[in-house]
Design brief:
This protein is mainly alpha-helical. It is 68% helix and 2% strand. The chain is built from twelve helices and two strands; from the N terminus they run αααββααααααααα. The chain has a two-stranded antiparallel sheet with strand order 1-2. The radius of gyration is 21 Å and the shape is globular.
Length: 343
């Protein structure tokens, strides 16, 4: 392994992490703009043109706020909680194929930090660790509301991870691969998996809302019952990390949805563009196409938040265990029958 390859991959990882953080940061601005549009308001419009500097102002405000620490015997874990939540939110971007490749300075740059054969297992493993960030933060806060919120979040995320995993099994039966790169390649043109797995896509989408603690599944942050939820006792940038991790998870969830079910960076006519316009132009268009798909899902996340009211906790558990899990198993059985019948 030459040093140029290591430098290339290091630069790419830094760029992807920075891009993920910028997307998460400006998702807060987009959320307020979408909410304002749906509620016939103006939204942020003071800091910069159209309020584009509002995320920077919010970040500076969080940095400048007083660091408040509750009287807890678990000060170390109190700091570790938001760090785990933030780290796991960023780590999942390492295996996502952001495009095919680019020819730069005589080298072929693959637009993926690492292409491992078990990319999906890696994502599920990292996402499952994210539960600990919330659980540890809520428990170490020495606050009963935070503890109840952490228990809610943990049970919610564990419950919906089962249905999410089962929905992916039907997709794996079709694709025969756990590699996100291979799954993207198989969806060249408009041969998207959503046309073959509409039920699996719907289940995965609902579970993504629950995994990201987004409305209508934000029971862990139910203000009327639990004040601020698991981050009630947090202030300054530690609270900012929790809020930032939520938007980073929303961005990564949107990316995974686009890659698994909507072709990722593939678009109609990509093979023609490769032949006539060259590798760089065709693949830059592919990156933009993936970005458009991601923005579409992010808008959908925000649209749902300001449209549908919050579920009750028993309704949340009922949907996960008694509806989505049986539906996922039925989808697996039907997929197996169809593969045997048509092959």
């Amino acid at each position: 392994m030459d040093s140029a390859f290591i430098i290339e991959k290091s630069i790419f990882i830094v760029v992807i992490f920075a891009f993920t953080m910028i997307m998460a940061m400006y998702s807060t601005w987009a959320e307020r703009k979408v909410a304002a549009y749906l509620q016939d308001r103006v939204g942020p419009n003071r800091a910069g043109w159209g309020g584009l500097l509002q995320p920077l102002a919010d970040g500076m405000k969080l940095f400048a706020k007083e660091e408040f620490e509750p009287n807890t015997p678990n000060k170390f874990l109190f700091f570790v909680g938001p760090a785990i939540a933030m780290s796991t939110a960023l780590m999942t971007s390492a295996v996502i194929p952001w495009g095919d490749r680019l020819e730069l300075f005589g080298r072929t740059v693959v637009l993926q930090a690492t292409d491992i054969d078990v990319s999906l297992l890696y994502i599920f493993g990292v996402v499952s660790v994210g539960v600990y960030g919330i659980m540890i933060g809520g428990w170490a806060s020495n606050n009963k509301y935070s503890l109840i919120s952490a228990i809610r979040a943990g049970s919610q995320m564990v419950s919906y991870e089962i249905a999410m995993g089962l929905s992916i099994i039907a997709l794996l039966m079709m694709t025969g691969s756990l590699s996100l790169k291979e799954i993207s390649i198989q969806q060249a043109g408009m041969d998207w998996n959503v046309f073959y797995q509409p039920v699996g896509f719907l289940i995965f989408l609902i579970c993504a809302f629950a995994e990201a603690n987004r409305t209508p599944f934000d029971l862990a942050e139910c203000e009327s019952e639990l004040i601020g939820g698991y981050h009630t006792e947090y202030s300054s940038m530690k609270m900012g990390f929790y809020l930032f991790a939520e938007y980073a998870n929303m961005f990564i969830s949107s990316t995974i949805l686009a890659v698994l079910y909507f072709g990722g960076y593939n678009y109609p006519g990509m093979s023609w563009a490769l032949e006539n316009w060259g590798v760089n132009i065709a693949n830059v268009i592919g990156i933009l196409v993936l970005f458009i798909k991601i923005c579409g899902f992010i808008f959908f996340f925000m649209w749902i938040r300001w449209t549908i009211p919050r579920f009750r906790y028993d309704q949340l558990m009922h949907l996960g265990w008694k509806v989505l899990i049986p539906l996922s198993i039925i989808n697996i059985i039907i997929t197996g029958i169809c593969i045997l019948a048509f092959n």
